[in-house]
Write a structure and sequence with these properties.
The structure holds two protein chains of two kinds. By secondary structure, chain A is an all-alpha fold. Chain A contains 15 helices and no strands. Chain B has two domains: 63 residues; 227 residues, MetI-like (MetI-like fold, Orthogonal Bundle). Chain B is built from 14 helices and no strands. Classes of the chains: A mainly alpha, B mainly alpha.
């Protein structure tokens, strides 16, 4: 009783103090973490703005009327041809939001000047067959690489990897020689055929397909399935996701192509929009932004629809060694 | 039961494992011998699936590359005289090639390490506890999707002599810089390259970071390792194969910067932006097969050597890590 009156015992006191200390420490840690999170978010936000700005600017500027464009950026595009320092007095006026939203650029592109739509169509015609047939060929090939692995197949697969890692400057001369030899220079075939047989998709799909447990296929075999049935009923459905991601990766790559058409298609009528776009800024800036935006739409739609597939595809590319 | 069966119990897991391995090996051998007719047929069919791709690759990549090797050591395709390395020497002494090689080297040597380091930082940032992760991922990845041709207009507005960057410099009282027609051109293309490629690299690093075993990190934290130690001794080790891959991919992509430069400045840009691809394109105009072949082979050799070196260094640094 007496003791109680005296107050709390030494032990109790120390634990209380301890508790307090822990609490303040936790508080400090929490605030520190909060600060760190805030900084991280801020930092990431800044980066995100930097990354997104060019895209957003292109889109918003496509809603400016031609007169507004030339008022804002006139000197940039007027001097880009002659090389430069003529209009020093005037300033560029970068705008996020147009003064007046107008669809005049789009109207000109879509209804008055068909050449841009034609070039857009060229792009589609060049890219879609490559995506479709590269996938088809690669599905077969990766099935071949997955079933009955042997030393020869491994060597060939290694060759594919090396080919995949070669920059375009190396494969360009061979491509040109073959196209010349097959007499397909200056036709779409010169771009289609090397694209279709590019080893990239084979590599990725093989890596994916080899992850399917062999026991699954063996079980099917024991049940009397032929190779075609194994391919069609097991590999195809299981590789659907991988096929999507490969298709997206191929699509981005070829939608962006510049080097191939420049060299293999001398006739600029057949050039895709990606090459043609660089040639319009001199004269018709009034619609350049609209054309650029239209050209951006398909890949962005693909991206929004299949971002997860894309991420998965990139991830699979990662393990080049395994 | 044990006595009845007459076999000793397995002493350890190791013994069990070795036995299983041997059994597997034997089974594989049996399979390899192809005693089974159906098996052999299946093997033949699987080759059939491979055939279209192999024929295509042979026809469009391998055979022409052999021809390219042949072209690179002969005088001209008509006489076919063997001249050893004359073509290589000729290309090497070509002023345009020297310029192009130097620029490409300079560009790759600055852009690739920057791309690797910055994307790793971005990945770590997204790995830490910040909100809106998936949105940020989308934002960082979006430049990869956008065709270069579409954003070139904006780059022109930004980096033109009368452009926005100079305007901003003007606010701080600095002199204008002719970004695309001066020594700064390299800086601009490095920025454009990073803008385009960081997202892709970041995804690779993110997947690698998430696959580091959590228990190792927890142990390190328990043993009061500093964040730097954790990064240096653990994370970097586990990331080494990804760093290798990202470096290789960035290297390959760094040769694609030609697209930006071409779309910005056409066939003959400012000196420091004249890349190997420009050299190739302009040599195509002259149809000088020997020169192009020699250049292509030199490039292939350089790539193979570089990739080999990278692989060797990676296997040295990451040898004690399973991954």
């Amino acid at each position: 009783m007496k003791r109680r009156k005296m107050g709390r015992s030494k032990d109790e006191l120390s634990t209380e103090r301890w508790d307090k200390q822990v609490k303040t420490k936790k508080k400090i840690r929490n605030t520190r973490q909060m600060v760190r999170i805030c900084f991280g978010t801020l930092f990431a936000g800044c980066f995100a703005v930097l990354f997104l700005m060019p895209i957003i600017l292109t889109i918003t500027n496509s809603f400016m009327a031609a007169s507004e464009i030339s008022a804002n950026y006139g000197q940039v595009f007027a001097t880009s041809e002659t090389g430069g320092k003529v209009y020093i007095s005037e300033r560029v006026n970068l705008k996020f939001i147009p003064d007046m939203v107008s669809f005049s650029q789009y109207i000109t592109v879509l209804f008055k000047s068909p050449e841009y739509l034609l070039k857009f169509w060229n792009s589609v015609i060049l890219v879609v067959p490559i995506v479709a047939f590269q996938l088809l060929v690669a599905m077969g090939a990766s099935f071949g690489f997955t079933r009955y692995r042997g030393r020869i197949k491994e060597i060939i697969f290694f060759l594919y990897i090396i080919l995949m890692l070669m920059p375009y400057q190396v494969t360009l001369v061979p491509n040109y020689l073959v196209s010349d030899w097959l007499n397909i220079l200056d036709t779409n075939w010169a771009i289609w055929l090397p694209g279709i047989f590019s080893p990239f998709a084979v590599f990725l799909l093989t890596k994916y397909m080899r992850r399917i447990p062999t026991s699954v296929m063996e079980a099917a075999q024991i049940d009397g399935a032929g190779e075609w049935q194994i391919f069609q009923k097991i590999c195809m459905p299981l590789c659907k996701g991988a096929m999507c991601s490969v298709a997206i990766l191929i699509f981005i790559d070829y939608w962006n192509m510049v080097e191939q058409p420049l060299i293999l298609l001398a006739d600029s009528e057949k050039h895709p929009l990606s090459v043609f776009l660089s040639k319009i800024n001199a004269g018709e800036i009034g619609l350049a932004f609209a054309v650029a935006t239209i050209y951006m739409v398909p890949p962005i739609l693909v991206f929004l629809y299949g971002e997860d597939y894309l991420v998965e595809g990139i991830t699979y590319q990662g393990g080049i060694k395994g | 039961m044990r006595f009845l069966k007459g076999s000793k119990p397995k002493e350890s897991l190791y013994e069990l494992q070795t036995e299983a391995k041997e059994q597997n090996k034997a089974a594989r051998k049996g399979r390899k011998a192809g005693s089974n007719r159906r098996d052999r047929r299946g093997r033949q069919i699987s080759v059939l699936y491979l055939l279209p791709s192999i024929i295509g690759v042979l026809l469009f990549f391998v055979l022409p590359f052999l021809i390219v090797i042949y072209y690179s050591v002969i005088d001209n395709p008509i006489s076919g005289e063997f001249v050893f390395f004359d073509n290589f020497v000729m290309v090497f002494q070509n002023a345009a090639f020297q310029q192009a090689a130097k620029n490409t080297l300079m560009f790759s040597a600055t852009a690739v390490p920057l791309a690797v380091v910055l994307s790793m930082l971005l990945a770590m940032m997204l790995e830490s506890k910040i909100p809106f992760k998936s949105q940020f991922r989308t934002f960082f990845l979006s430049p990869m999707m956008v065709p270069i041709a579409s954003v070139v207009l904006i780059w022109q507005v930004l980096f033109h002599y009368n452009g926005m960057m100079n305007e901003i410099l003007g606010w701080f009282g600095r002199d204008r810089v002719d970004w695309l027609n001066s020594a700064y051109a390299q800086v601009v293309i490095v920025i454009l390259f990073l803008w385009k490629n960081l997202g892709y690299n970041m995804i690779l690093f993110m997947s690698a970071l998430s696959s580091i075993p959590k228990d190792i990190l927890e142990v390190a934290i328990l043993e009061s390792a500093t964040p730097f130690q954790i990064f240096w001794h653990i994370k970097l080790r586990y990331l080494s194969s990804t760093i290798l891959f990202v470096t290789i991919m960035s290297l390959i992509n760094s040769f694609k910067v030609f697209r930006e430069i071409y779309l910005l400045k056409g066939d003959y840009p400012y000196d420091t932006m004249y890349m190997l691809q420009h050299f190739m394109n302009n040599t195509f105009g002259k149809l000088d097969y020997q020169k192009m072949s020699a250049a292509a082979i030199m490039m292939a050799v350089v790539m193979v050597v570089l990739i080999g070196i990278l692989f060797v260094t990676e296997s040295y640094f990451g040898k004690d890590v399973e991954g």
